[in-house]
Structure formats: structure tokens, C-alpha cells
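Support request, please re-run this one:
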Amino acid sequence: MQYKISVLIFIRNEQGEFLMLQRKKAPNQGLWSPIGGKLEMETGESPYQCAVRETYEEIGLKIETSQLHLFCMIAEKAYEASNHWLMFLFDCKVPIPKLPETIEEGAFSFFSRDEINTLPIPETDRNGLWDIYDKYRDSFVSARANCQPSHPLEIVVEQIIEGSQGIP
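Re-run finished. Output below.
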């Protein structure tokens, strides 16, 4: 299996609700997740550049790298038994003013943090990423997840760097 590199961007509206996308494509077809996408590795794109590009492409919100806070890097081993993923998770400091229109990847909705716990979301999100967001969104954490189908999901935090980024 090869690694794929991707970003997830956690974006809120002015009321503090999270923007979620119900994905029409694999991986995570039919499940709700934050927006994101794959790095354009052939161009040498950085994770920050990818997050800026994906935010504009998916929801039309123009942001700069300074308006993002990288709060997690997680290596997912054998996700859906098809690929390893190296994911960079960003918290966006800019609220989105309104719900974006449906795109090819899926439809959007806003949810409170409590509502997200009741949604159909990827197992790694439910059992790890949202907990990491809740605990460390003002800091930085490096983690790994064993997603092999023959093993129970295991997420291990490898490093935590405490600190506040002044994110509302």
C-alpha cells in the first residue's frame, strides 16, 4: 500500500456550528466529514497550500495560510484496507457566512458539536479525530491510527505541543 496525503479543514459559521459535507464518493461515501482533499504532490503543494485551495474549490471561501491553524498530523495505516493516509487537520479562523451550494463531492450542512456525535461519520473521526479536535485544537498533536480491518481501531498520540493560537 502507498501513502496518500490529505487535509481536513474544520470550519464554523458565525454561530459556531461546524460545516460538514455528506460525501458522495469513496472514501467515506455517505458519511459526514469536514471538507478537505488530497495534496497535489506533483506540483510540490504544501499541506497549507492544499487547505487554502480545497477551501476555495469546495466552498468558495478565500483564505490565507495565516488564517489556518494546523492542530494535528495523523498517519492512518491501511484505511479501508486500501491505502495509508497522512492527514493534516486544520482549524480555520475565518467563519463561513452561509451554507455553500451542493458540489460534485456532496451536500453541506451546519451542525453543532453535539449533533456531530449523532451523525454517520467515519469511524476514525468518531473514535479519534473529533476527540483530538476537542482537546487539542489550540495546540498541536501528532498521532497514528491502525485502521487494519483485522484489528480494532487504535489511535495513539505520539506527541503533544501545548499552546494557544487565539482561535475563537
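DSSP finds three helices and nine strands in the chain. The longest strand covers residues 68-79.
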